[in-house]
Design brief:
Chain lengths: 296, 276
């Protein structure tokens, strides 16, 4: 049956071939093509693309170039969103998972579903719903603030409120996913450890710190890394909710890349920016991975 | 083990938190039945004073530049076809790599797994140019094909097939079945739960994607529901919260219902995928 003749190898290779073709055409070639584009003066409307070597990259690092502003300011804004959102995405996700797990059995499924529902909503609907809730004059949230005699907040037009609004909308939309992953990990923590902990007189809090957290560490790392990547890729929420404003203070790196590519039509510059952005993301993921492994 | 007081306390907290998740959706529904005049009037009205269906009629009438039903159809079509392609090529490749004698197998496996670390933004613009050169922008192809290169499914299924006991396959081989028959009759049925997981992940990913369909389509009839609504929000519907909320309700209700039905499998899938 496992005759390793060339004929058998050939028919076996046919299993991998369809995926391999798609992989090459839609992943491998674009990676090379993107690097190639980044070395050219690539105007979308001009059929001739002049080879410029690393000049596009040099412009990004040259503080007198507009590309430098575009990249660094976009990166700074993206970083801000990552720093505000990731700790909350992880902590609130875990908090919801603990809450669901603490519920009596028959309520668990119901509330898990309720917290997970916004995940089914698409980003443009998320943006529209939250724009309407956060509207300064007619928004539901400011109406309630007024009722409680609190000041009306310019949720989308002032800093730091614009960031807070984007983080709230993002949490509402995606937190259910992290919660499900955490619930799953919590269910795998051995019951015996908790029982031993209880016998030793550990409080609820102590059991959480000394038993739960260490047991779910791999999941924690997974959620931290995937949430960081997702937050780096943020586009729809600021594009639709704040349009990068007020000013350009929520204009994230991906928005600047898209503008440079399709508004300025400078695909060479945009490709160089994309490559650098990807590189930064890879470095951060590796860093997170290393840090979490060092503590062992 | 838990006291009754603690239980009640936890349930109350869970209800309050639940309200935070549900209120935005309820407010969308409430607004969708209001006239714009009432929507803009100060004061919190959960039940509209004048109950109107005009917003829904307007949104569903689908003017030629806002064919909402067509958009929903596009999203479903793109999601389903994209998912079927991924399932087809990924199961085949993963089984081949896990079990069959293939030249350069080790190299292929490490390239596929290595590709999982590459951020999506790297291929974004070159893929756009590729489809541009092929003349395939603004078609279903550009909305479906790029998702098929993702190695996540190959990796997920490869792990599963490696752990799958060989005896069943060997018995089938002894009965004279060939590789293809073994794959279809023995291996695939056994992998149904993992395949289902991959299907749900893939479908949600394609259905919810925003930036790619936004830049690669431009005619109104090629929009997905996500991008179509985004365009509409900036255009004709901008000053009418009632119509906007009717539109988003139409787009959201089926998705939420499907999700409530499908989420059990999704959660089961997360468990089986070994993400922990």
């Amino acid at each position: 049956m496992r005759n390793s003749g060339w004929k058998s190898q050939l028919t076996s290779s046919l299993f991998v071939l369809p995926y391999l073709i798609l992989f090459v055409v839609f992943l491998l070639i674009p990676i090379g093509y993107g690097a190639w584009m980044s070395l050219h003066n690539w105007d979308l409307l001009n059929p001739v693309h002049e080879f410029v070597g690393f000049k596009n990259y040099a412009k990004i690092f040259d503080s007198s170039s507009y590309l430098n502003d575009l990249f660094l300011e976009g990166l700074k804004n993206t970083f801000q969103f990552v720093v505000f959102s990731v700790p909350l995405l992880v902590a609130v996700g875990l908090g919801l998972a603990l809450l669901v797990n603490a519920l009596p059995g028959k309520f668990k499924g119901f509330f898990r579903t309720v917290y997970f529902i916004p995940y089914a909503v698409s980003v443009s609907v998320v943006a529209i719903i939250w724009l309407w809730l956060l509207d300064t004059n007619s928004g539901l949230i400011n109406q309630y603030m007024q009722k409680l005699d609190l000041p009306m907040i310019p949720w989308l037009t002032d800093m730091p409120w614009a960031w807070i609004s984007l983080v709230i909308a993002t949490l509402w939309w995606t937190i259910g996913f992290n919660m499900v992953i955490f619930i799953n990990a919590l269910n795998d923590v051995s019951e015996e450890l908790y029982e031993a902990g209880s016998l030793d007189g550990a409080s609820r809090w102590q059991r959480f710190i000394y038993i739960t957290l260490p047991s779910i560490k791999p999941t924690m790392l997974f959620v931290v890394i995937t949430s960081t990547i997702a937050s780096f890729n943020i586009y729809g929420q600021p594009f639709l909710m704040t349009r990068g404003g007020p000013g350009t203070s929520t204009k994230v790196l991906l928005m600047n890349i898209v503008d440079e590519a399709f508004k300025q039509r400078q695909l060479g510059n945009a490709a160089a920016m994309s490559l650098l952005m990807a590189l930064i993301m890879i470095v951060i993921s590796v860093f997170q991975f290393k840090i979490s492994n060092r503590k062992e | 083990m838990q006291s009754k007081g603690f239980k009640v306390f936890i349930i109350i907290i869970a209800i309050i938190v639940g309200l935070i998740f549900i209120v935005p959706i309820l407010w969308m529904l409430a607004t969708s039945f209001k006239t714009d005049q009432e929507a803009f009037t100060a004061g919190i009205k959960w039940i509209p004073k004048v109950f109107t269906l005009e917003n829904y009629q307007f949104s569903l009438a689908g003017n030629s530049d806002t064919p909402v039903i067509q958009w929903m159809g596009n999203s479903l079509f793109v999601g389903i076809v994209g998912t079927l392609i991924v399932l087809f090529v990924d199961t085949l490749a993963a089984y081949g790599l896990a079990r069959l004698d293939i030249p350069f197998k080790k190299l292929l496996i490490s390239i596929f797994i290595g590709s999982l670390t590459i951020p999506w933004v790297i291929t974004f613009l070159p893929l756009y140019m590729e489809f541009n050169k092929l003349g395939l922008l603004d078609t279903y192809a550009v909305l479906i094909l790029p998702y098929s290169a993702n190695a996540f499914g190959v990796f997920l299924l490869y792990q599963y097939f490696r752990g799958f006991p060989k005896e069943l396959e060997e018995a089938a081989f002894l009965d004279g079945a060939n590789k293809w028959q073994v794959f279809v009759k023995v291996v695939l049925p056994s992998a149904r739960p993992v395949i289902w997981t991959l299907a749900i992940f893939t479908f949600m990913g394609i259905y919810n994607d925003f930036l790619w369909p936004l830049v690669t389509t431009n005619s109104p009839e090629m929009r997905t529901i996500t991008t179509g609504i985004a365009i509409m929000q900036q255009g004709s519907f901008v000053s009418s919260p009632g119509r906007l909320m009717a539109l988003t309700s139409i787009a959201t209700i089926p998705a939420v219902l499907l999700f409530i039905i499908g989420q059990r499998s999704f959660i089961k899938g997360v468990t089986q995928s070994g993400i922990k």
